[in-house]
Amino acid sequence: MRLRIGIFFALRMTLALIVREVSRFFELIGDDALNAGDRSEALFYHCVAIVFLLCAFACYIWALLAFLRSSRAIAKPAPAIDLKQIAELPQAEPSFDADVIMARYLAKRQAASVEPAAPAAIEPTPPPPPPPRPGFGRKGKER
Predict the structure, then answer these.
(1) 29 within 8 A of 45, measured Cβ to Cβ
(2) How far, in Å, CA of 66 to CA of 4, rounded?
(3) pTM for the whole structure
(4) Residue 69's CB: how many other CB atoms inside 10 A?
(5) d(CA 92, CA 94)
(6) pLDDT tens digits, 90-117
(7) In whole angstroms, what is the distance from residue 56 CA to residue 12 CA?
(8) Apex CA 31: angle with CA 26 and CA 35, to 5°?
(9) 132 pLDDT band (50/70/90 cuts)?
(10) What pLDDT score does 23 carry?
């Protein structure tokens, strides 16, 4: 299983490397056309090189995703389920009883209401207002 995963990963990485080299080839042709003075031909070859570079990037991602998926599949083998062992397990009785829970809730509620209330906290006196500020400019002066 691991050998098969390694081969597929290697093939995808090889494809990405080949596509990247093709991109470099077209880039060099575009550089030669630019040095010769033909800008439109250089632009065409550089655009083709960018397209191949994007394809190479997609191949790298494809290989990485395949590697990650395969490593998760190897790391977590499926557990073996034996139906006979499951059938032999003792069945637990249900321990949930709504009446008991309701009675416990009502008892706690009544106990809480019977307890004496805590003494009211003494409210602190508010701080005194700040002293008035002296007048500014002609505000405090009479004519």
Answers:
(1) yes
(2) 12
(3) 0.46
(4) 11
(5) 6
(6) 666 667 788 888 999 999 888 877 655 5
(7) 10
(8) 150
(9) confident
(10) 92
Contact indicator for 140, 134 with CB cutoff of 8 Å = yes
Indicate the burial class of 60 (C-beta count within 10 angstroms; 0-12, 13-18, 19 or more). Answer: middle
Which amino acid would we find at residue 129? P
Residue corresponding to tokens 């490593």: 71
What is residue 62's three-state secondary structure? helix
Alpha carbon distances (Å) from 143 to 57, 60, 73, 133, 134: 85, 88, 94, 21, 18
| Per-residue tokens: 59 | 């191949």
DSSP label of 76 = S
Cβ–Cβ under 8 Å, residues 30 and 49: yes
Per residue in 25-70, pLDDT (tens digit) is: 999 999 998 888 888 888 999 999 999 999 999 988 888 887 787 7
Report the distance separating Cα 5 and Cα 74, nearest Å: 10
Report whether 66 contacts 12 (CB < 8 A). Answer: yes
Q: How far is CA 56 from CA 13, 24, 32, 52, 78, in A?
A: 9, 11, 23, 6, 34
